[in-house]
């Protein structure tokens, strides 16, 4: 079954399964039961079995799931068989923290370029990469074959940045700006609003916002 035929809810859970399976694989564990994996990932057992069955027949009654087999299926479904170049827009405090994050490379993502509108930052280096101007975006996207972008700019600048990214050919945007982006059909956007997530966490923890 192709990735396009998986539901959005299923896709959102696949990285969680993969993270747990990577951890048990590092410990040398070769098999896990569906009930154990469900508990470790915080997912209902029936939902987990349905999610994994969408990737193929892998579980065996009385044996469970072979870790390497499920890991391979998850990696294929998530498109992790190759390195995906990413452009980071924004070299402020948040952008610098994102650029320094070491979790991208093991998962198949590499920040290939960093761009900021502040000309005072042009030519400086963040995480070993030279900060460049927005005018260089189209050439960088073409040169590095960049398909994805991380947007870490203020809300008022985010839509203009998204427009530039779409015009340059970027097909996926991870947006940290607290604003909804309008993009053409075929371009995917995932928004991460940290304050919004904290508000939800506050409600769930205390019943108050």
Automatic annotation (TrEMBL):
NAD(+) binds at residues 90-95. Residues 16-55 bind DNA. It comes from the Bacteria. Pfam families: CoA_binding, Put_DNA-bind_N. Keywords: Cytoplasm, DNA-binding, NAD, Repressor, Transcription, Transcription regulation. Residues 80-180 form the CoA-binding domain. InterPro entries: CoA-bd, NAD(P)-bd_dom_sf, Rex_actinobacterial-type, Rex_DNA-bd_C_dom, Tscrpt_rep_Rex, WH-like_DNA-bd_sf, WH_DNA-bd_sf. The keyword tRNA processing does not apply. It is found in: Cytoplasm. The keyword Lyase does not apply. Belongs to the transcriptional regulatory Rex family. Homodimer. PANTHER family: REDOX-SENSING TRANSCRIPTIONAL REPRESSOR REX, REDOX-SENSING TRANSCRIPTIONAL REPRESSOR REX 1. Modulates transcription in response to changes in cellular NADH/NAD(+) redox state. This is Redox-sensing transcriptional repressor Rex. It comes from Micrococcoides hystricis.
């Amino acid at each position: 079954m192709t990735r396009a035929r998986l539901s959005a809810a299923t896709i959102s859970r696949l990285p969680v399964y993969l993270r747990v399976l990577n951890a048990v694989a590092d410990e040398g564990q070769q098999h896990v039961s569906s009930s154990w994996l469900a508990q470790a990932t915080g997912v209902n057992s029936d939902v987990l079995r349905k999610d994994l069955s969408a990737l193929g027949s892998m579980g065996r009654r009385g044996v469970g799931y072979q870790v390497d087999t499920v890991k391979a299926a998850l990696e294929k479904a998530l498109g992790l068989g190759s390195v995906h170049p990413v452009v980071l827009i924004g070299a402020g405090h948040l952008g610098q923290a994102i650029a320094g994050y070491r979790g991208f490379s093991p998962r198949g993502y590499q920040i290939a370029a960093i761009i900021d509108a502040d000309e005072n930052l042009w030519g400086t280096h963040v995480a070993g990469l030279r900060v460049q101007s927005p005018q260089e975006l189209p050439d960088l996207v073409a040169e590095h074959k960049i398909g994805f972008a991380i947007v870490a700019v203020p809300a008022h600048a985010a839509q203009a940045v998204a427009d530039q990214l779409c015009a340059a050919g970027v097909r996926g945007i991870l947006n940290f700006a607290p604003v909804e982006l309008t993009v053409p059909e075929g371009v995917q956007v995932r928004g991460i609003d940290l304050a919004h997530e904290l508000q939800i966490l506050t409600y769930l923890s205390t019943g108050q916002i």
